[in-house]
Model the fold of this input.
Amino acid sequence: MNHTLPTLPLVQLPRGAKAQIIEIKGNTHLSLRLLEMGFIPGTHLQLISRLLWGGSLAISLRGSMVALRQTDAQNILVSPLEKS
Done:
């Protein structure tokens, strides 16, 4: 899919950075699970923390804190938001 905004996998977003979800990739089961968790294209999020050595990410999303495996975060394309 062509995007006009620069995108990167959520797993590559720096800690503390805010971004907008652009696309959910992966198989149908994973995509549906992520959508049910609130990872919907157009939604803004913030990466709060990251555990070392392939651990989980803590993400602030739609008023909730969500833990997500890095392997799943690889399938979420985001566009970083400029700092305000």
Remarks:
- The chain has one domain: 8-80.
